[in-house]
Amino acid sequence: MIYTVTLNPSIDFIVRVDGLKLGDLNRMTEDFKVPGGKGINVSRILKRIDSESTALGFLGGFTGNFISDWLKEEEIATAFTQVEEDTRINIKLKSDSETEINGQGPMISDQAIDRLKAELATVGAKDIVVLSGSTPASLRAGFYQELIEIIREKGAEFVIDTTGDDLKEALKKEPLLIKPNNHELAELYNVTFDSVEDILPYGKKLLEEGAKNVLISMAGDGALLFTKDGTYRSNVLVRPLKNSVGAGDSMIAGFIGSYSKQADAVEAFKWGVACGSATAFSDDLAVRSFIDELLPEVEITKID
After folding, report:
1. Where are the alpha helices (DSSP H) in the chain?
2. What percent of the chain clears pLDDT 90, i.e. is strictly above it?
3. Distance CA 1, CA 125 (A)
4. Which stretch of DSSP H or E encloses residue 58?
5. Pairing state between β 214-217 and 77-78
6. Is the pTM of this model over 0.85?
7. Fewer beta carbons within 10 Å, N or C terminal of the chain?
């Protein structure tokens, strides 16, 4: 089983406004609401590529009900921990440029933390747990490390998609997969990259520090995969870019969904690129038919 953990989910309220004028009345030309949160996005894409998962995390209030009802409609298993305050709403304002206004998230009680940990402690030795996204401000620093300890005690594998100290500390625990983009990688090591070649030593460094597989997304320059068996680069699929939200989560879902079935990192990389690209070229998360259309276009080359 694959489990996803979203500590600070949201409703993403996506609004389109032509020619936004600050300080004036603006009218939406389009709006829609979808479940948000990186782990939830992973679960939704996993379902579309025929990989089952169970979504964990904190949900509360009418906004939390919206998310749980949506996932039930998509036939995604859930075991969320209920909290008293409402799950946050994030505004994605699309006009001449894209603006995001993200909520802080609810207060999380010690009792809710204990319930989440108890749920996580049911994972088994063949399971994969995907930890991704931000944490509510009310959670103590290093909370991800507490969850990783539970996962490792149960003999399960984990994926972590976050940045900064949480990522650095997680490397010591040998994650199955991490997926920083090129900017996050540069920030992690306090360097700058002028070319793809500049990135290569730092992808290998992540392996040396504990990661089993490393995906580096590079937007218009494709993506890189670092494994103990070599370094691989994908080509760049060409379509109009529509959506920057969820593409990275879709890449993780494609990789883990494939890897969980055959433990082939290169084939999993191909699926990750197809799923991530399909979402980037869609208004919402990618649908299966589009993923299948793009999959034959993905070319993986071993570069080292």
Report:
1. 38-48, 61-73, 110-120, 143-153, 164-171, 182-189, 196-208, 247-262, 265-280, 288-294
2. 89
3. 10
4. strand 53-59
5. unpaired
6. yes
7. C
With CA atoms as reference, report the closest residue to 281 among 251, 223, 253, 240. 240
Please report, for residues 35, 183, 185, 235, 252, the alpha-carbon distance to residue 218 in angstroms, rounded to integers and kept in the order given: 26, 8, 10, 11, 14
Q: Dihedral, CA atoms, 151, 273, 210, 226, nearest 10 degrees?
A: 160
What lies within 8 Å, CB to CB, of 129 at 6+ separation is 2, 3, 4, 5, 120, 123, 147, 151, 156, 157, 158, 159
**In the Cβ-directed half-sphere of 199, how many Cα atoms lie within 13 Å?**
26
Residue located via tokens 């040998």: 174
Contact 300, 234 (CB under 8 A): yes
Which residue type occupies 224? L
* Phi, psi at 239, each rounded to 5°: -155, 165
CA distance 92 to 100: 5
Q: Give the residue ranges of DSSP H helices in 49-107.
A: 61-73
- pLDDT per residue over 244-288, tens digit each? 778 999 999 999 999 999 999 999 999 999 999 999 999 889 999
Please provide the DSSP assignment of 213-280 as one string: -EEEE-GGG-EEEEETTEEEEE----S-----SSHHHHHHHHHHHHHHHH--HHHHHHHHHHHHHHHH
Q: How far apart are CA 44 and CA 46, in angstroms?
A: 5
CB 112 within 8 A of CB 106: no
Q: Which amino acids are annotated catalytic?
A: 249
> pLDDT per residue over 3-19, tens digit each?
999 999 999 999 999 99
